[in-house]
Each structure stands twice: as structure tokens, then as C-alpha cells.
Amino acid sequence: MDIITIIGLTAAFLTTVSSLPQVIKTIRLKETRDISFWMWTFLSVGIFLWLIYGLYKKDLPIILANGISLFLVLIVLGLKIKYK
Q1: Which of 14, 30, 37, 62 could disulfide-link to 54, CB 3.0 to 4.6 Å?
Q2: CA 60 from chain center: how many Å?
Q3: Per the structure, how many domains does the chain have?
Q4: Domain residues for 74?
């Protein structure tokens, strides 16, 4: 594995786990009043497009980061819709 792939995987890991505190807090508190619906909607669309790009380019760090990130962001967005 070359250094660029390691950098990409490290960046993918860090940006992906950055959503975890919000996911955990939202699940525990069942409170989404202070979460912006539109911010999470735009973020999910952007991540989805990055995932498509990564699949097209066959770029593992982009695919992994955005696949997992999209899953986590959609959890928060779904809870935002559920708990309004």
C-alpha cells in the first residue's frame, strides 16, 4: 500500500468518525431541535455524489469514507424527520 492510499484511508477514517458523536447524541437524547434539516440534507446529497464518484473512479478510500458517512448522515437525517 503506497503512502497516498494510507493518507486517503486516514482522511476517510477521520472524516467518517466525525459524524459519530452527533449520531450517538441524537439516538440517546431523541432530540433534534438544534440540528439543521437542510444542512444534513445537503450533506447527504454531497456525500452520495462523492460515493458515486468514488465508485466510478474505483477509489477505495473515497468509496469507504462516503459509504459509511452516508449511512451515518442518513441516520441523523432520519431521526431529524422522526423527532421534528
Answers
A1: 62
A2: 15
A3: 1
A4: 3-83
